[in-house]
Amino acid sequence: MRYRRALRFLLACGAVVAVSGCGEAPSEDDLTLEPAYVIGIRPAPGGVICEGQDIVVVFNRDPGDARCDAARLYPDVQAGSLRTFWATGRGTLSFAWDNGGALAVEYHVAICEYEPPMLVSAFPDDREPVSLDALQERGIVLVFDVEVYSGSVDWDEAFALTGPDGWAWDAPVTAEGRRVTLGPPAPGVFEADQTYGLRGVVTDDRGNETEISLTIVIAEDDE
H/E element holding 179? Predict the structure, then answer.
């Protein structure tokens, strides 16, 4: 009886050894992952897409290297279970990803026009007097309805701010998403009871441009 049990154990152990060794977990080389699969696409297949439109592919898990023959991965580096592509104007999109995953999707292509970025708020307000202290504390803040970019130049070159007698400020510019900030300026850059002009250009991720023109009025010094 004891002999038969030992024999059954050895036979079972021998079967495991053939794969990865008795009592050892299989190595990564022994495991072949099934490809991830798509659980959703936006817009839905069969719908209408425009050139430059985002197409979001949702996988059950990270698919690894995902690609498409008729759409560009944007941004270039993505991780997780979502992949966002830019449509290039073709109706048939063939997606592929690691471990042999693949999917073809059909759309109807339309010619679409996109609105350029819109300035939704500004500090200071155009032509509304602002205190010198507030301007020196916050700088000039522009907020748009979409994420904006500086086009083909650096942010510091995207804006020009001028004042009386040919005065110009080489303003440091920072941008984060929909918000662009010039400054804040150091004390002495601006003067009370003076008027300054701001001009600039921003673009969206499709290259649509919006020109900015603001008049900044510094209030009189209360002291």
Answer: strand 179-182
